Amino acid sequence: MTDADLPPRDRRWPRSVFAVGREPDARFTFANERTFLAWVRTALAFVAGGVALTAYAQLTGRPSAAALVGSLLLIACGVVSAVGSFVTWMRYERALRLGRPLPSSKLIPALTAVLVVFAVVATLLAL
After folding, report:
1. Torsion over CA of 45, 51, 54 and 59, rounded to 10 degrees?
2. What cellular component terms from Gene Ontology apply here (predicted)?
3. Cis (ω within 30 of 0) for the bond into 8?
4. Dmax of the chain from CA atoms?
5. What is the count of structural domains for the chain?
6. N- to C-terminal Cα distance for the chain?
7. Which domain holds residue 77?
8. Closest CA to 70 of 82, 60, 59, 78
9. With contact defined as beta carbons under 8 Å apart, do 18 and 42 qualify?
C-alpha cells in the first residue's frame, strides 16, 4: 500500500469540530455556514453604525458623551456578534457531526437586550 492509497488526512480547523463524529449532510453544513456569514454581516453593520455615529457627531461639531457611548456600544455589539457567531457555528457544527440536537443560541437574547436598551436611551436623548 502506498501513500496514494491512503485517505487524505483531514486538516480542517478547528480540530475540536472536525475531529469528532461523522460528516453530516452537506446541506446542513452549508446552512450553518450561511447563518454564520449572516451574523458576520450583522457584526459589520454594527461596527459601521458605531463609526458612522462618531463621524456624524464630529461633523456636526457636537461630539458628546452620549454619541461616544452609543458608538462604543454599537462597536461592542459588532465584536460580540462576530465572536459569538464563530462560537455558535462551532457548537452547531459539532452537534450536527455528533447527531445531537442543536443547542440554543445565547447570542440572540443578549444582543436583543442590549439593542433595546440602546434604542430606548437613544429615543430619550432625541426628545
Report:
1. -100
2. plasma membrane
3. no
4. 77
5. 1
6. 77
7. 22-126
8. 78
9. no
* Residue 12 grid coordinates: 480542517
Give residue-wise pLDDT tens across range 9-63. 678 889 899 889 999 999 999 999 999 999 999 999 999 999 999 999 999 888 8
Q: How far apart are CA 32 and CA 2, in angstroms?
A: 36
In a domain, residue 14? The reply is no
How do residues 109-123 score in pLDDT, each as one tens digit? 988 998 898 889 888
The answer as to whether 118 is a domain residue is yes
Q: Looking at the domain assignment, is residue 8 inside a domain?
A: no
Q: Is residue 37 part of a domain?
A: yes
Asked if 107 contacts 88 with a C-beta cutoff of 8 angstroms, the reply is yes
